[in-house]
Design goal:
CATH class: Alpha Beta
CATH topology: Rossmann fold
Radius of gyration: 20 Å
Number of helices: 13
Strand order of the largest sheet: 1-2-4-3-5-6-7-8-10-9
Distance between the termini: 68 Å
Structural class: alpha/beta
Order of helices and strands: HEEEHEHEHEHHHHHEHEHHEEH
CATH superfamily: Alpha/Beta hydrolase fold, catalytic domain
Number of domains: 1
Shape: globular
CATH architecture: 3-Layer(aba) Sandwich
Length: 343
C-alpha cells in the first residue's frame, strides 16, 4: 500500500528536544527533515500558519539537487509538540530556528526561503543577523505569499474566529479545516481526497493541533505591532532579498507584495528581485512547484541587469517584475530619448 504524503514526510524526518533559553517554557519535541548532499550549501525552508514543513513537499526534493535542504515544524504545528498554554510566538520560533540551524544542522550560513507566517520569523532572523544576534548568517532571503503588511491583507472569517472565538474551535475538525483551505487557498481548488489536503488533515490531527489554533494565531497580533520595524530593518541591510508571489492569492493579495517592494525593497542595497507566478494561489509552492523553484533559483543566480519579463516562453512562466536600483531615472529624460532609426 502506498504511503500517504504525510506518512512519507514523517518517515523522512527526525526529532530533537528544545526549550527557550529563558527557561520559561517546558521542553518540546521538534520534528525536522533534511534532504540532499550533507556537504552542499544549506537552504532552510520556513513554513507558515496553520500548516507545517509538509507545505514544502513539492519543492524540497527539487531544491535538494543543489542544496542541503533543511526544514522543521515549529512548536504547535505539524509533527512537533503542541502543549496548551506554551506561549507560542514569532520570537520564540526565531530563537528555535537559529538553534536549529547552528546546533542541529551545524550551518554557519544559509539561504532562507519562507512562506506566510514564516516570513515574519525569517524577518526576525534577518534582523538578528544584521546586528550579530544570530549564529547562522544569511546569504539570501526569499519571501513568499504572506500578510507581512496587514493593512493590505484580506483576513478571512475563519482567521478572525480563531483569533477571537476559541470556543467555536470545538466544532472544527482537522478534516474540515483542511478541506476549507483546499477550496480557498489553492488554484485550482482541491478536494478532500487531494494528497496535500489529506496531509494537512493528518498534521492538524497530530496532538490535536486544532485545539490550540487560538494560541498559535496570536502571531497576527505580534506581527501587527512589529511588522513595520522588521521591514525597515531588512531595508537597511545589503542582504539579497527575493519576493516570489502567487498571483491568485486573495488572502495575501499581490498588493501586499507590491507595497513591500516599493516601500522597502526597490531601493534596498544588495541584489533584490520581485517575481509573480501566474496560476498560483496562497500556497504557491504547491500550486506551481516547478515555477516556484525556477523563480527562486533565478533570484539567486540572475545577473543584476536581468530584464523584467517572463523567465521563458512557456504559458504561465514566472514573471520577473522588477529588480532593485539606486534611484529612478528622470521621467522627462526618458521621454526625451529617441531610439535610433533602423538602417
Amino acid at each position: 500500500m502506498t504511503a500517504s504524503r504525510a506518512e512519507e514526510w514523517l518517515a523522512t524526518g527526525a526529532r530533537f528536544d528544545w526549550s527557550p533559553a529563558a527557561g520559561d517554557a517546558s521542553p518540546v519535541s521538534i520534528f525536522h527533515i533534511e534532504l540532499g548532499d550533507a556537504d552542499a550549501p544549506v537552504l532552510a525552508l520556513v513554513h507558515g500558519f496553520p500548516t507545517c514543513s509538509v507545505d514544502w513537499f513539492e519543492v524540497a526534493h527539487r531544491l535538494s539537487e543543489r542544496f542541503r535542504v533543511c526544514a522543521l515544524d515549529f512548536p504547535g504545528y505539524g509533527f512537533s509538540s503542541k502543549p496548551r498554554g506554551w506561549g507560542y510566538s514569532l520570537r520564540r520560533d526565531a530563537e528555535l530556528l537559529d538553534h536549529y540551524l547552528a546546533e542541529v544542522v551545524g550551518a554557519s550560513s544559509a539561504v532562507m526561503v519562507a512562506h506566510d507566517r514564516g516570513d515574519s520569523v525569517a524577518l526576525i532572523h534577518a534582523a538578528g543577523t544584521a546586528d550579530g544576534r544570530t549564529r547562522t548568517g544569511l546569504e539570501h532571503l526569499v519571501l513568499s505569499n504572506a500578510n507581512v503588511f496587514l493593512p493590505l491583507s484580506n483576513l478571512t472569517d475563519a482567521q478572525r474566529l480563531m483569533l477571537h472565538n476559541p470556543e467555536l474551535l470545538e466544532q472544527l475538525t482537522p478534516e474540515l479545516l483542511a478541506a476549507g483551505m483546499g477550496v480557498t487557498t489553492f488554484t485550482p481548488p482541491r478536494g478532500p481526497d487531494d494528497p496535500e489536503v489529506q496531509a494537512l488533515a493528518t498534521t492538524f490531527a497530530h496532538e490535536d493541533g486544532v485545539a490550540i489554533l487560538n494560541e498559535t494565531i496570536q502571531y497576527l497580533v505580534e506581527r501587527s505591532v512589529d511588522e513595520g520595524a522588521w521591514l525597515r530593518a531588512l531595508a537597511e541591510t545589503d542582504l539579497p532579498t527575493t519576493v516570489v508571489w502567487g498571483l491568485c492569492d486573495t488572502v495575501s493579495p499581490p498588493r501586499v507584495a507590491s507595497y513591500v517592494w516599493h516601500e522597502h525593497l526597490m531601493f534596498k542595497p544588495g541584489a533584490n528581485a520581485f517575481y509573480l507566478i501566474p496560476g498560483a494561489n496562497h500556497y504557491v509552492q504547491n500550486d506551481r512547484p516547478d515555477a516556484y523553484v525556477q523563480a527562486v533559483l533565478h533570484g539567486l543566480d540572475a545577473p543584476e541587469d536581468a530584464a523584467p519579463g517572463a523567465l521563458d516562453d512557456a504559458p504561465g512562466a514566472p514573471v520577473l517584475v522588477d529588480r532593485s536600483r539606486s534611484e529612478l531615472p528622470d521621467a522627462a529624460e526618458l521621454i526625451a530619448r529617441r531610439a535610433p532609426l533602423p538602417g
